[in-house]
Amino acid sequence: MKYKLICIDMDGTLLNNKFTIPDENIRALKEAMENGVKIALVTGRPFNIASYFKRFLGDDVLIVGTNGTYYKYGEVLYKKTLSADEIESIYNIAEKHKLTAYFKGHNIVLSNEKIPENHQYKMINTYLNDEEKMNLFDNCSLQFTLENHNENICKCIVFSDDTEAVNKAKQELKQYNILEVVSSHVNNFEAMQLGTSKGVAVKSLCDSLNVKPEELICIGDNENDLSMIQFAGLGIAMGNAPEEIKLQADYVTDNNVNCGVAKALDLFLK
Fold it and tell me: Where on the tree of life does the source sit, at the highest rank (predicted)?
């Protein structure tokens, strides 16, 4: 089978635990691109932050940001945003359960709490030019958040070290059935427009690229990756993925620390 597109999650998949791309993964992806395979990073990170990592891989790498709610390809702009009412519902539940909420667009983050000085977005901002930088706002009230979202908020990630409170808030939000709610870690959940997912965005990208599902590889490690793993002709779960994700994948590779992405690509592209 000649694969034409590889869609890869970032955190817990492409990146190691230091949030960098291991050299072996870089090598494997560059070899794939040299052989005509397109690469897309499909991530919960905002588009601008994810785009920073292109400097390690090449400008031809595609980015699908904020959990499958935003990408640009040529003249195509794919953008699924949260309404003011949806933002208010998420904000109020986060406050009720004393959780941190980051409302994210392709170039903006609005937080209900202080964004730490050592946050990765602030660190990456130092490497970006003014047009690429993320606009970060912290300690935002609900009113400020609503006044400044400007129809650009694609998702919200809600998180805390109190995983019990996170789960309670997640279940409460899910029961309203007004949003797509998934987790990328036990300490968080992410809320997007109903009907959006990484899988839906990847299908749209495949249509734009004229790529069939059987010509697609998707690699991920968590609940928010499942939709694209199931859509792909070859869906690969990381070794560090939860068991329920592994059971629904076509193949399970090594973990993110041991360059599971490179090992999988070396196996299936050669």
Answer: Bacteria
pLDDT tens per residue across span 139-188: 999 999 999 988 999 999 999 999 999 999 999 999 999 999 999 999 99
Give the length of the chain.
Answer: 270
Statement to judge: residues 117 and 68 lie in one domain: no
Same domain, 23 and 157: no
Q: Which of 164, 193, 222 is the last residue of a domain?
A: 193
Could you tell me if 72 and 163 lie in one domain? no
Q: What is the pTM of this model?
A: 0.95
* Total number of domains in the chain: 2
- Give the burial class of 270: count Cβ atoms within 10 A of its Cβ; 0-12 exposed, 13-18 middle, 19 or more buried: exposed
Q: At 45, list the tokens.
A: 């990170």
**64 shares its domain with 97:** no
pLDDT above 70 for 1:
no
Nearest to 16 by CA among 202, 221, 161: 221
Print the domain residue range for 170. Answer: 84-193
Tell me the C-alpha distance between 229 and 187, whole Å: 22
